[in-house]
Design goal:
Number of strands: 6
CATH class: Alpha Beta
CATH superfamily: Phosphoglycerate mutase-like
Number of helices: 9
Radius of gyration: 18 Å
Distance between the termini: 40 Å
Shape: globular
C-alpha cells in the first residue's frame, strides 16, 4: 500500500510581525483600535521577526539535506511568505531553489467586523458580539463577515487532503498562523473541542515556534502522523533570537 502521509510535517508560525507590535501597543494604551495601515494580508515581519525566521532556518540547515523539508506550503500572507523565504535563505530546505506553494487555505482566521479591534474595542463597539462569543465559545462563534474556528478547520481539512494526495513520503514544511497551528493539531490528532481549547489556554503559539509530526507505519491499519514536538522555541534560543508569542493584530477575538 502506498504511504498516504508525508514522512514528516513541520508546522511553523510566522515570525513576529509589525501587526503583533501594533496590537501590543494598542492593548497597553487601552485603545479600541489597532493602528495598522493597509490590509492584514500585507503586514510585514518586524526586524525581530526576520531574526526569528532566519534562526529557524539555521536550525533546519543543521540537518542533513536528506532530512530537511523538500516541500514548502505557506499562507499567502506577507508575514508567512517572508518567514518561509528567510528559512530557505538560511539553508533550511533541501534545495535552495525550492519553490513555495502559497495556499490560501492556510491564511489567517478572518475576523469580519471585529477586525483590528482590541478586546476593549470589541466590548465597547460590539458588546453583543462579546456576549455571543462568551455564550458560544471561540470554537463556534462566527463574527459577522468573519470565521469561527470551525470554518478554519473546514478549509484546513481540505488542505490536509491535498497534502495526503500529493506529498506522501515527502518532508513538508507548513508556514502559517497561530490558529492554523492549533486547528491542524485538532485535525491531525483527532482532538475534541475541549482538548484543543485546553491546549490553547496553556499559552499562545510562539512566533516561529516549531510543531513537528513523524509518520509511524505501526499506528493503525495504514499508519498515522505522531506528534514529536509542539511549539518548540529551542531554535530561537540557540540563535539568541528573543522569543515572542503575541496574537496577531487581528487576534483580540481569536
Amino acid at each position: 500500500m502506498q504511504q498516504r502521509w508525508p514522512d514528516r510535517i513541520w508546522i511553523v508560525r510566522h515570525g513576529e510581525s509589525a501587526g503583533n507590535v501594533a496590537r501590543d501597543a494598542a492593548q497597553a494604551a487601552g485603545h479600541t483600535h489597532i493602528d495598522i495601515a493597509g490590509r492584514d494580508v500585507d503586514v510585514p515581519l518586524s526586524a525581530l521577526g526576520e531574526r526569528q525566521a532566519a534562526a529557524v532556518g539555521r536550525w533546519f540547515a543543521e540537518m542533513p539535506a536528506s532530512e530537511r523539508p523538500d516541500v514548502v506550503l505557506t499562507s499567502p500572507y506577507r508575514r508567512a511568505e517572508s518567514t518561509a523565504r528567510l528559512i530557505r535563505e538560511a539553508g533550511g530546505v533541501a534545495d535552495p531553489l525550492l519553490d513555495f506553494v502559497a495556499d490560501e487555505r492556510l491564511r489567517e482566521k478572518e475576523f469580519g467586523i471585529l477586525d483590528r479591534l482590541t478586546r476593549e474595542g470589541i466590548t465597547q463597539l460590539h458588546p453583543e458580539q462579546a456576549e455571543l462569543r462568551q455564550l458560544l465559545g471561540k470554537f463556534y462563534h462566527r463574527p459577522p463577515g468573519g470565521e469561527s474556528w470551525c470554518d478554519v478547520i473546514l478549509r484546513l481539512r481540505s488542505a490536509l487532503d491535498t497534502v495526503s494526495l500529493h506529498y506522501g513520503g515527502r518532508r513538508v514544511l507548513v508556514v502559517g498562523h497561530q490558529v492554523v497551528v492549533l486547528c491542524l493539531r485538532y485535525l491531525i490528532e483527532g482532538l475534541t473541542e475541549d482538548e484543543i481549547l485546553a491546549i490553547d489556554r496553556e499559552g499562545d503559539v510562539a512566533n516561529c515556534g516549531v510543531t513537528e509530526y513523524a509518520f509511524d507505519p505501526r499506528q493503525g491499519s495504514s499508519g498515522k502522523l505522531v506528534l514529536q514536538r509542539y511549539n518548540v522555541v529551542a531554535p530561537l534560543r540557540q540563535a539568541g533570537a528573543p522569543v515572542t508569542a503575541e496574537p496577531d493584530a487581528t487576534g483580540a477575538a481569536r
